[in-house]
Structure formats: C-alpha cells, structure tokens
Amino acid sequence: QVQLVESGGGLVQAGGSLRLSCAASGRTFSTYAMGWFRQAPGKEREFVAAISRTGMNTYYADSVKGRFTISRDSAKNTVYLQMNSLKPEDTAVYYCAATLGLASSRERSDYDYWGQGTQVTVSS
Asked: pLDDT tens string for the chain (124 positions)?
C-alpha cells in the first residue's frame, strides 16, 4: 500500500505558475506509475498527466500539453506537476494517484491509490 499527500495548491492569477508536489510513503515508490487528475465543481474527475515508473515516459491531456510538466524524484519519493500559463479553466481540486498498471492509462479506475487533493484556483 502507498499513502499520497499533495501540497502546493493555492490562488494564482491567470498566466501565473504553481508547482504541485505529491509525497509518497509506504511501498516502494518505483513500483508505481504516477498520475495527476483534477476535478472542477460540478464536473467529473479528469486525467491531467502521468509518468512511468522510470520517469522516461510522460503523458498529458490535450488541454494542458505544453503548459504542464510532470516529473518524479525517486530519491524523495515525490512526483511533481509544474503548471505554467495557468488559465481560469484550470481551477479544480488536483489529485495525485498511483497505479500498479500502465502509466499510459487515463482512466480513474486504473489507479489504485489516491491523495486527498489540493485546491488550485486561477483568477482572471
């Protein structure tokens, strides 16, 4: 089992940047591919980005491609989401998730463990 704790959310103006962190504890971090999802009010939770166990492969939703970057630091058991050029439509609760399956999966049901979420609010 793995426990995930997100941090780094907050309020930022449109065009600004934030970096989210997700600290993992428990089973070996490298066992899991990691992902970020987000959920805006009244909407379904949606895939944002994912990274493979080695960090060699990354995957992004079209809506964030070119603006967001996912990375992982195995020494710190942490995965990051660098968010640049933020837009009001990026406002959501962001969740970190871990999967024993394929990093290329964009389905919530494929992820085994979830953090509690961190709020990101982008003002116009």
From this structure: 899 999 999 999 999 999 999 999 976 888 999 999 999 999 999 999 999 999 999 999 999 999 999 999 999 999 999 999 999 999 999 999 999 988 888 999 999 999 999 999 999 9
C-beta neighbour count of 24 within 10 angstroms:
23
Backbone angles phi, psi at 105, to 5 degrees: -70, 140
Measured CA to CA, the distance from residue 60 to residue 116 in angstroms comes to: 21
Please identify which residue in the block is written with the tokens 């964030």: 64
In the block, tokens 């805006």 appear at 40
**What is the number of other CB atoms lying within 10 angstroms of the CB of residue 70?**
21
End-to-end CA distance of the chain: 40
Report helix, strand or coil for 110: helix
Query: In one letter, which amino acid is 54?
Result: T
Q: What is 78-93 written as a DSSP string?
A: EEEEEE-S--GGG-EE
DSSP 14-53: TT--EEEEEEEEES-GGG-EEEEEEE-TTS--EEEEEE-S
